[in-house]
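Consider the tokenized backbone below.
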């Protein structure tokens, strides 16, 4: 007699709703901003309950957001503390700036080929704003981000933009601004003007060279800032 086989239904995992995914996207973005602005400092613990209260959401999207940020390297898990903002050592910073030099150089090269008149005008406006804010490091840092983002957009390459966005997330782990280093605001302004000059002349080689030199100088300023932080 043949035994009758009865199929046992397997309970499938319920996929995350679009609403939960949307909330997780929102939470991820807000935590990234909080890290970038210093609300969460490197090494600081991030508590699910506090984030949920702050953003007015349940702990589920917060948990999902923290998993995403962990995969991006922005946070880590410590068994005795829980989720903490990642900290970069000097070697990691050097590796980060090495990649930034390559990518910023590529962005400037492509911008020299594809930039339009409106984008050139925007870069000129940002140079003027930077000159007017030379004595305010935090404001200058915000203008600096706009300046670089304008060049990224002018490159007109979606894949480069995606890669630079990941790099920008990692840069959020760096404390303070290199514009706090004495003399850096002035030299950075000169470097920025050189980049814009070469882009305006539609010279890809010199635009890339100027951008790479600028990031190399920023790297030196960052290491100096880190050394001063270790001493104080």
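A designed sequence for it:
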């Amino acid at each position: 007699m043949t035994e009758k086989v009865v199929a046992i239904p397997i309970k499938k995992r319920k996929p995350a709703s679009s609403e939960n995914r949307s909330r997780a996207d929102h939470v991820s973005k807000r935590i990234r901003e909080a890290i970038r602005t210093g609300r969460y400092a490197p090494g600081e613990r991030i508590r699910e309950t506090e984030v949920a209260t702050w953003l007015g959401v349940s702990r589920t999207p917060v948990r999902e957001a923290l998993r995403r940020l962990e995969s991006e390297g922005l946070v880590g898990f410590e068994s005795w503390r829980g989720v903490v903002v990642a900290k970069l050592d000097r070697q990691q910073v050097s590796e980060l700036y090495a990649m930034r030099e390559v990518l910023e150089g590529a962005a400037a090269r492509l911008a020299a080929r594809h930039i339009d008149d409106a984008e050139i005008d925007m870069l000129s406006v940002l140079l003027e704003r930077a000159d007017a804010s030379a004595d305010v490091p935090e404001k200058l840092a915000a203008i600096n981000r706009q300046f670089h983002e304008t060049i990224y957009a002018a490159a007109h390459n979606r894949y480069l933009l995606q890669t630079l966005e990941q790099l920008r997330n990692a840069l959020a782990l760096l404390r303070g601004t290199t514009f706090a280093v004495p003399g850096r605001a002035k030299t950075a302004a000169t470097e920025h003007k050189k980049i814009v000059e070469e882009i305006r002349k539609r010279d890809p080689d010199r635009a890339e060279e100027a951008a790479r030199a600028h990031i190399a100088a920023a790297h030196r300023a960052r290491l100096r800032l880190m050394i001063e932080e270790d001493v104080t």
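The two ends are 85 Å apart (CA to CA).
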